[in-house]
Amino acid sequence: MSEFLQFLFSGLTVGAVYALVALGFTLIYNASGVVNFAQGEFVMLGGMITVFAHMAGLPIPLAALVAVAATAALGVCLNKLAIEPARGAPVVSLIIITIGASIFIRGAAQLVFDKQIHSFPAFSGDDPIHVLGATILSQSLWAIGGAAAVFVGLWLFFTRTLLGRAVLATSNNRLAAQLVGINTDFVMTLSFALSAGIGALAGVLITPITMTSYDVGLALALKGFAGAMLGGMGNPKGAFIGGLLLGLLEALTAGYLSSQYKEAAAFVVILAVLFFMPQGLFGRKSTDRV
Amino acid sequence: MKKILTTTVPAALIALGLGATAHAEIRIGASVSATGPAAFLGDPEAKTLEMLVEELNAKGGINGEEVKLVLYDDGGDANKARTFATRLIEDDEVHAIIGGTTTGPSMSILSVAEDAEVPFISLAGAIDIIQPVRPYTFKTPHTDRMACEKIFEDMQKRGITKVGLISGTDGFGASMHAQCKDVVGDYGIEIVADETYDPKDADMTAQLTKIKNAAGVQAVLNPGFGQGPSIVTRNYKQLAIDLPLYQSHGVASDGFIELAGKDAAEGVRLPGTALLVADLLAEDDAQKPVVAAYKAAYEAKYKMPVSTFGGYAHDGFALLVNAITTAGSTEPDAIRDAIEATSGLAGTTGIYTMSPENHLGLDLSAFRMLEIKDGGWTIVE
Known about the structure:
heterodimer; A: mainly alpha; ABC transporter involved in vitamin B12 uptake, BtuC; two-stranded antiparallel ribbon; 11 helices; globular; B: 381 residues; alpha/beta; Rossmann fold; 2 domains; four-stranded parallel β-sheet; 13 helices; 14 strands
């Protein structure tokens, strides 16, 4: 029993990391249909900026705030300098632009920061919490809590606010959204700022668990993307549950089958799910009017 | 007349040019991975080479001749390394090459260097670089196999016969994992659990729980590199596993203690080089002066702690300088013979004694078994 619980905790810890990254994809995807491959770089920046601001003498909460704000500003720049000038280009071209941005940010981070691995202390100490013979670190609870909070926030944003509905409308039909008076440029800028901010927040929460360096973004983005696809792209509930599920799948495979197959097992399940439910577990069915 | 002008003048210029360079300097080529995935190995290597060349020239060079370093950054890409090796030999006309931060680039440089018959000193770990022995290829870092042997030797002394392995699936972890499995039988030790993790994984408690519950396990060994071993060490503490934990030489740095946390790293043992424990070496230790001088110079110049990897570059350069000095010539074959004749040269990694059968020249004594106590290193006797 304690063994199962430990695998569960391990899966929840890893899953919370994936869920936090997956949630970051949601906003930009909802506003523009673009899968932002620079999302992992936002996560990396959140961690790295916090580390360096902390080393420069700022307390961690303030350093984290600086990191989230700076990354959100960078998200706005990415939209203004790279995405907006290419307006009207097909979604695939925009996705390729985000891949370019990701490579650029990684290279710049290597020069601006350094090439070492960094971490900062966990928010509430390193002492594990014991539950029925299994243990979990308090930072994992922070990550799970953070993911849940972002999920609830996004869900309220999309369902209860006018602005959230404006984002969805922009994604659905840009021209129609403009005709009913939605400032679609602002919606795009807002979605990049929020996505970058959520990414950076994820970086702050997971760095004490995973550590960070200039090149962690790609691996995180891939896992987060897989989690988002599993749950249903664009749906905050899908991103949250998809990320957690992916983590649990990996941990349980590592625990009961073999750690050699944990990635393979997780991806086989994802393929199976997408085969029967191409929209993911919670994705909207898309209907095109002809 | 016009014909004479077009043919003889350039010929004369070329002759002059060659004459000028041949007497003025010794050219050493280097291709390391100062950027890319192996950047945190290659970056200190590049810095070390630049610093040492500067130092050497300030002292008058080798036998009064200035040394010129031609340094390229291959970004860890084996194809780029091959291109740079060719460029170093054909365009820069170097007398010897140091480099190949990781095994891939090393293998491609060595094939170019062997064809051109130019001495090459590799900075990568794999045993395949010097086994079988190739006439012009040498290397400075000890092999994974030696690290495994050192660890198992220590386990044997503590009476440990059953171990659990948790290895990274990156190149370093996979290679060391294979070597350890290969030699473990020689020490009467049995592997009772064999788990892996992806180098970017966030949590290894699932694997460690399995190892903890394996029948009769007495110690755990973690061949790995980068942040993985730090996370393993933290999770080890989180699960309160009460068995000795061994890490590899891949994480032998102060950064590891910092990342894993002082409390979690307490009692962890790993094979490291003299460079890591410069202050703890006995006064009569042959490596002490070399290690202390390199550490002081590097830390003063770059304001960052020395690393084992920079030490490999230091030793490669020392081997080469020693060989060119004793050979008194920059002929590739003379340098090659002199490197092979190296005997008792103290470097930061160990004491090198090369032979025609051994182009590494280190034995197990190059490794010191270290234990982490109170956030610092101690030498296990």
